[in-house]
Design goal:
The chain is α/β, with parallel strands linked by helices. It has 3 domains: 17-145, Beta Polymerase, domain 2; 153-184, no CATH class; 187-222, no CATH class. It is built from 3 helices and 9 strands; from the N terminus they run H-E-E-H-E-E-E-E-H-E-E-E. The strands form 3 sheets. It has a 5-stranded mixed β-sheet with strand order 1-2-5-4-3. It has a two-stranded parallel ribbon with strand order 6-7. The chain has a two-stranded antiparallel ribbon with strand order 8-9.
């Protein structure tokens, strides 16, 4: 039977592109509707980026999620960028997606070394892990985060303390690491190399004097 093929022109695009003028219109609208919070915008590579004042991050992201003209209901990720030569050294960056309009938006805010970043976990709980990652990698502290502590664990080989930010004391605190097993007392010597201890089962070796051996060695059958 002859094969029937569908003309390429009739195949709908799997990911429809958002017109650049629509993104530009949205960026200009955000600056107008959020004066003092949204400081600027640009469209690059088909994505809208906006610059936001640090103290307005939570309110702006909440607006972007629930406003009928935005509907950026999906949190994608968050990260940071280090600019050592700049007065406000860091950029904290959030990415959101609208499942309704297929628009993506990037939210950036400049952060100085001594400043704290408001946590957006109250708007997007999924930002919890990402903000902890930024804290771990860049040292940025997120105020209002429910569990701001490092992701990386340095024990049992390289340390006895873990670090987290304490909301009550308003500072980073060091606490002893609590382990479910005593890994640090583990003896890495191979039993074939010998050791000054008795291993389970050594008492069955049947030594003549009845004293369990202090080392375990390979015994050839006699």
């Amino acid at each position: 039977m002859p094969e029937h093929t569908t003309p390429e022109a009739a195949i709908p695009a799997q990911v429809p592109q958002v017109a650049a003028d629509a993104l530009a219109e949205l960026g200009a609208s955000l600056v107008e509707r959020r004066p003092g919070a949204v400081l600027g915008w640009n469209v690059r590579n088909g994505e809208l980026s906006i610059d936001v004042a640090l103290n307005s991050i939570v309110e702006t992201i909440e607006f972007l999620r629930y406003d009928g003209g935005c509907q950026f209901s999906l949190f994608v990720d968050a990260t940071a960028v280090d600019w050592p030569g700049r007065a406000k050294r860091f950029d904290v960056v959030y990415h959101l997606l609208s499942m309704y309009t297929n628009r993506r938006i990037r939210i950036k805010a400049q952060v100085a070394e001594e400043e704290m970043v408001p946590s957006i976990t109250g708007v997007f709980p999924g930002a919890n892990w990402f903000e902890r990652e930024i804290f771990d990698m860049y040292g940025l502290i997120f105020s209002g985060h429910p569990d701001l502590r490092r992701l990386r664990k340095d024990f049992p080989l390289t340390g006895y303390n873990e670090v987290r930010y304490d909301e009550v004391q308003k500072r980073v605190v060091y606490e002893p690491v609590k382990l479910t097993q005593e890994w640090r007392a583990f003896d890495f010597l191979s039993p074939w190399e010998g050791g000054a201890f008795a291993l389970p089962g050594d008492e069955k070796a049947g030594e003549p004097d009845g004293v369990p051996p202090t080392t375990t060695q390979h015994r050839s059958p006699s």
